[in-house]
């Protein structure tokens, strides 16, 4: 059965993510649009740099066209936020992006973008899933497809980069002359950063920008374990910082001038401080799953409201649509800001970090150290464990029914199992959560010292593997 996770539908290529299933989902989306009488508003279709992504996108376009839906199809690989802007600008009924984002190379996927220019709400996703399951239950034959002669093509780069530039303080960023290394991770952002940097006069060097559907053997997720190449490139090139985007360029990663990894919690806190102090922006802060102590401290200092949401940027999007939000983000690097679409955008956030460094005249590492001296040090870590379904189920049931009194040497104060299992510790917090797109358990923790962090993570791994 086809199921949508926290951000669309994903599966292993040629196992469950097949041309037949892709066409079935496209037909379900067409039926959803037609029943809402929005077929003339149309659907925008795009694709990332993964194996067969273009062919999957063309199949979606062909199914939609055969159903009488107006279709715009990208003429090249593009970042997810570039597609989202096309949906917004064209006032389309929605958008289909063929991507598995940061997943391993054997995966592909499909994201549906809503007319407001962001992740589809849980209600929209549930409605589309009903159409999918109806087609599955009927054991529908291969949906009819049209040739692509009636499909309209678009080139995304120029318009998208104009939207990114519109948010930036160009006077400040034009003054920045320090060298930057930008890691494309062989993804859809390749070529976009260097094109924008050229327009802005920034000394930026792209790495891992070649087309490589295997991503060089490294998952295209900009977390610390996947950014060793960037860390080495920064120190080798004596760069001011290193910035990275994921497979579809909607997530951000960063390393400082010494090659030290800067996590998403720290990026949110740094940018919140900058946008409040230097740009004078209003709004609260949003973080999914569990807000970092650093973000809480920054929110308290500036009197900003702090929102916590379940996992999935669609929940952050909901808050951004309803409330005055300055910045919202996920621990994996998916961040969105106000005065833009309610969507993650790794490229935009990367250039905002460059703008921030230009405004303060300091590199990322120095800015983070100053922030930490003011608000305290918070040590965050994440581990991903491959566990059998039986083990995952046993672990989550055990945590809910008979939670441990301690993890490592840290006492457990309370346990809440709603969106994963969250353990409040005497010196921090720990979370176990089953991935919605991969067969793994993710373990997240934040402690007051690095020694405590490693101790808790080791204890959490031992507990999970004992199931």
TrEMBL record:
Domain of life (superkingdom): Bacteria
Cofactor: Mg(2+)
The protein, known as: Phosphoglucomutase
Record key words, sorted: Isomerase, Magnesium, Metal-binding, Phosphoprotein
Pathway noted in the entry: Glycolipid metabolism; diglucosyl-diacylglycerol biosynthesis; Lipid metabolism
Alphabetical list of CDD domains matching this protein: PGM_like2 (cd05800)
GO molecular function, one term: phosphopentomutase activity
Cited InterPro entries: A-D-PHexomutase_a/b/a-I, A-D-PHexomutase_a/b/a-I/II/III, A-D-PHexomutase_a/b/a-II, A-D-PHexomutase_a/b/a-III, A-D-PHexomutase_C, A-D-PHexomutase_C_sf, A-D-PHexomutase_CS, Alpha-D-phosphohexomutase_SF
UniProt record similarity statement: Belongs to the phosphohexose mutase family.
Alpha-D-phosphohexomutase alpha/beta/alpha domain sequence ranges: 3-136, 159-259, 264-371
EC number: 5.4.2.2
A Pfam match: PGM_PMM_II
Domain Alpha-D-phosphohexomutase C-terminal, residue spans: 417-457
Reaction(s) the record says it catalyses: alpha-D-glucose 1-phosphate = alpha-D-glucose 6-phosphate
GO biological process entries: carbohydrate metabolic process; purine ribonucleoside salvage
